[in-house]
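quick one, 552 residues, struct below
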Amino acid sequence: MSSASSTKTGAAKPSSTRANPANKWESAADWTDGRLGIYSLAKANLRKIFPDHWSFMLGEICLYTFVIIILTGVYLTLFFKPSMAEVVYNGSYVPLKGIGMSEAYASTVDISFEIRGGLLIRQIHHWAALVFVAAMLVHMMRVFFTGAFRKPREINWVFGFLLLVLGMFDGFFGYSLPDDLLSGTGIRFMEGAILAVPLVGTYIQMFLFGGEFPGHDIVPRFFTIHVLLIPGIMLGLLVAHLILVFYHKHTQWAGPGKTEKNVVGMPLMPVYMAKAGGFFFLVFGIIAAISAIATINPIWAYGPYRPDQVSTDAQPDWYMGFSEGLIRVMPGWEINLWGHTLNLGVFIPLMIFPLVLVAIAVYPFIEGWITGDKREHHILDRPRNAPVRTALGAAWISLYLVLLVGGGNDLFATHFHLSLNSITYFVRAGFFLVPVITFIVTKRWCLGLQRRDKEKVLHGRETGVIKRLPHGEFIEVHAQLPAKDLHTLTAHEQIQPVELPAQTDENGVARKAGALTRTRAKLSRGFYGEGSQIPKPTAEEHHEITSGHGHH
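---
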């Protein structure tokens, strides 16, 4: 009797995808694929299509500078000593010999003058951080102005916002680590802002500094936050951000053959990856060249931090100029209640700063609520076709620039021989006036561009050819636009404002609209009403003019 079992078993997965690998590299790849299943995953995703437009390179700059920051940061941590213990400097930089300083400052000076390539790596690290934050801000502005944050990308917008905010604060922690006079002044600034928080400010200050300012723990704590906590969170957010970009597919500009359901562009492998790899080394090379030419944060010129000294022209990195300007131009108001002082001159700016940032984070949800649009959007808007959104973005940028002037009011005063008080008064007035003026001008500009586009669609482009009609009139001959240009100028949709529900229902019973509904309708009219968009030309209008009726 046969002992063979009648139990059914599943077919075994082949251990090899190739019977005879051509070489050892193919054999190694085959061995890896047999255990990880990489081939099938790569086959499904490496041919994914990415659109080709220069504006999409802004996000790549963010990614590449982050990689540069990580690489150079790892090198710097090998030599930096995050300690506030006092030592006497006896290194090769003669002007500082015999001066007492913290180990953090001494080790940073040693990195700059003793470690081979240390100064260049420090410069690359700092410049890459500046470019990283700048690229993130410009990238987010590109996403904002083109409407790339709409469904299904609202969560990815929030991820990008968190990366921007974390990048700003990690930069602050990073340039505070050397414990030089400039960074110490920045930490003192932060301590004053914390102390202005009612009730809990002193407790937060004592917890953060481990005692009275400056304490002995702030640099080690900043070091842990700077190299471990925030980069770890940012790395997770970055991976999630890229996964969502891959999952939702990339947005694209309107054009012939491009719809909400396809992507027109190049495959990820080999075209896009080859271009991306070359672009990475281009970014790295430019940052390295800037670092070799332009000195940034020369801590040896500032000297070690002392609580009784403040360096002249003390400025934070540009991305913190917003908060600096808020506090510099705020009047020194105070309220004394029950023996306690509330420093409004610091507390109010401390509240405005996060409110402005939060407004950026929640904007996609606000616009989605105003429009009531539940559809997915993969085609980008031209900024001129969303005048109110574009005007809001321009107003925010103008506010930032005004406060940046306030944050550097001493530099503007000394370099342009202006009154410091006059600059402060200008910034105070500009805080309220400049964003409003910018909003109005930008909105009218966008509407003017829409009128120009409509004219080009209906009447074509100017050729410069002058023609005399039989009755003696001279006209300029217009040429019809190519189909591609006509598609670009007319592909956008125009959202209609939300209407209030009827005042009575089908039974004639009065129906009142709630305050939230009325607010939504008013905002919708403001965004998409008659004065906020120019009706785009219809096919009938275009046919009537181009068929010879009134077309030159």
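The CA atoms of residues 331 and 345 lie 6 Å apart.
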